[in-house]
Amino acid sequence: GAPKYPGSRITNGEQASRGQFPYQAALYLDGRSFCGGSLISTTWVLTAAHCTLGIDTVTVHLGAQNLNAVEAGKVTVATRNLVSHANYNPSNLNNDISLIRLPSAVTLNAFIQLVGLPSHSQASNTFAGDAVVISGWGRVSDTSSGISPNLNFVNLNIITNTVCARTYGTAVIVSSTICSLGANGRSTCNGDSGGPLVVSHGGFPQQIGVVSFGSSAGCASGAPSGYARVTSFLSWISANTGIHIANF
């Protein structure tokens, strides 16, 4: 299969407007690396294990659109309370999911809102064929260096794990993985690891994936991108955060 590398960035996407993705978090990890994340409660951010592994301090930015600008309603907070999945496997990126606890509850506003989590009854849903959106600040093309200061997004579709495994193999693509594919070179690439893959559920955003990996052939190669499948980790999230997961 195609070689994989952790991380994704958005290519051929569009710039988000302020407040369009109010659950999006920007994570600066020990001041040396960058990831995305999502606000799943007023005290917890969801991200990827490969983002937090070996990291001491995470600075979390909430309510941001332009990372370089002063923006009303933006909140920045540092924390050292990180919970990586105990079974994260760096060699095949299985269980690539992590939690970040904020030191105190954040106050929600027009630019800071929660993303919904699936219910237990959705665990059997593969979401194959569903339209999804990912958002993040990653490099906007294969040739650009550094992250984009502006939040971007791209619309993609979920593909079956069987199709995804043709690219990455069955050691990487397991039941707790979910994959997406974009038309016309749309993809995710470096800088958006840990960010949210979201469906619209009853008109509200619901997170079904955490950005995990893309293809080393480059973002615009048209290869699928892989995510931790949130429905496989609902009990883990609940056990570590106390967040109530609905049955239906």
Automatic annotation (TrEMBL):
<keyword id="KW-0378">Hydrolase</keyword>
<dbReference type="InterPro" id="IPR009003">
    <property type="entry name" value="Peptidase_S1_PA"/>
</dbReference>
<keyword id="KW-1015">Disulfide bond</keyword>
<dbReference type="InterPro" id="IPR043504">
    <property type="entry name" value="Peptidase_S1_PA_chymotrypsin"/>
</dbReference>
<keyword id="KW-0645">Protease</keyword>
<feature type="domain" description="Peptidase S1">
    <location>
        <begin position="10"/>
        <end position="242"/>
    </location>
</feature>
<dbReference type="GO" id="GO:0004252">
    <property type="term" value="F:serine-type endopeptidase activity"/>
</dbReference>
<dbReference type="GO" id="GO:0005615">
    <property type="term" value="C:extracellular space"/>
</dbReference>
<keyword id="KW-0964">Secreted</keyword>
<dbReference type="InterPro" id="IPR001314">
    <property type="entry name" value="Peptidase_S1A"/>
</dbReference>
<dbReference type="InterPro" id="IPR001254">
    <property type="entry name" value="Trypsin_dom"/>
</dbReference>
<dbReference type="InterPro" id="IPR050127">
    <property type="entry name" value="Serine_Proteases_S1"/>
</dbReference>
<keyword id="KW-0720">Serine protease</keyword>
<dbReference type="InterPro" id="IPR018114">
    <property type="entry name" value="TRYPSIN_HIS"/>
</dbReference>
<protein>
    <recommendedName>
        <fullName>Peptidase S1 domain-containing protein</fullName>
    </recommendedName>
</protein>
<dbReference type="InterPro" id="IPR033116">
    <property type="entry name" value="TRYPSIN_SER"/>
</dbReference>
<dbReference type="GO" id="GO:0006508">
    <property type="term" value="P:proteolysis"/>
</dbReference>
<dbReference type="Pfam" id="PF00089">
    <property type="entry name" value="Trypsin"/>
</dbReference>
